[in-house]
Design brief:
mainly alpha; MetI-like fold; 2 domains; transmembrane
Length: 297
């Protein structure tokens, strides 16, 4: 006797129809509009001229774009190099249980609740030599600190501001990964007499690989799209020292009202982020697979 197959109800697909509609209006249609602008010279709302890939070629030759891309790459790599180990160290130092753990989690997460424009304003005041705590302290130590006039000081201030604002996110993710490790691993390490460094290297870091991958991707994408904080703090200056890709795009689209080049660059910007995230993801996947391989005698 042949087995009876239960009919499949396809009506459940209608439940996700609102999601597709929202995505179409919030992502697909704006993307199509940007693609349309990128191949046209918009002279006026009524007059447009098709130019093909001319804007893409013009944007790629722009020296200001090259400088902004270099600033962006340096900044994003510095963010990962500082925030990842600092976040792991902070997570390791946080208490695991009790009311101290709850209180620490709340305190650590406070900076994440502050809006981006407020963060820029806080550090704008914090770095001033006349009324700012950090600026005045550095001046008393004999350091001629001036984030508005010195390019290096401005770049380091933006980096320090981002570290202060977003390291707690890495710490919270790492803390969640640490709390998910079974106690049996730690018991086996104590029996073997493993040091804290060995426990970190062979137990904690491998078990946190998943959450650390999420932390790296989130922090890279967010740092690569940073705009509000450096705009409020330095305005992209002095010169172009803290002008990142998002500010370059804003200058093109809003400041100069070059919608064609701005649309072309926004697509290039989008592809750059996708490319780097793809490379980072595959690199971390390879590291994870290599760490899971067990050598045979």
């Amino acid at each position: 006797m042949s087995a009876q197959t239960k009919p499949v109800n396809q009506k459940a697909w209608f439940l996700i129809l609102p999601v597709f509609i929202c995505v179409a209006f919030s992502a697909i249609l704006p993307l199509m509009t940007v693609v349309n602008y990128s191949v046209q010279d918009i002279i006026s709302p009524e007059r447009r001229v098709f130019v093909g890939t001319e804007w893409f070629a013009a944007v790629m030759r722009d020296e200001e774009l090259h400088a902004a891309l270099w600033n962006q790459l340096r900044f994003s790599m510095a963010v990962l190099a500082v925030e990842l180990p600092l976040g792991i160290a902070l997570a390791l130092a946080m208490p695991a249980t009790g009311w101290r753990a709850s209180a620490t989690l709340v305190i650590v997460a406070l900076s994440l609740l502050i809006p981006w424009n407020v963060v820029g304003t806080i550090w704008q005041i914090f770095g001033r030599a006349d009324i700012g705590l950090m600026g005045a302290a550095l001046q008393r130590l004999g350091i001629d600190y001036n984030y508005t006039g010195d390019a290096t000081h401005a770049w380091l201030t933006v980096l320090l501001m981002d570290v202060w604002h977003w390291t707690p996110l890495v710490a919270l993710l790492a803390y969640a990964g640490l709390r998910s490790i079974p106690d049996a691993y730690y018991q086996a390490a104590r029996i073997d007499g493993a040091s804290k460094l060995a426990v970190l290297r062979y137990i904690q870091l491998p078990k946190m690989r998943g959450v650390l991958m999420i932390a790296v991707l989130l922090r890279f994408m967010d740092s690569f799209m940073i705009y509000t904080e450096p705009f409020v703090l330095t305005g992209g200056g002095p010169g172009n020292a803290t002008t990142f890709l998002s500010q370059y795009l804003t200058q093109k689209a809003v400041g100069q009202f070059d919608l064609g080049p701005a649309a072309a660059f926004s697509l290039i910007y989008f592809l750059i982020i996708l490319l780097f995230c793809f490379v980072l993801y595959n690199w971390m996947q390879r590291l994870g697979q290599a760490g899971q391989e067990v050598p045979h005698d």
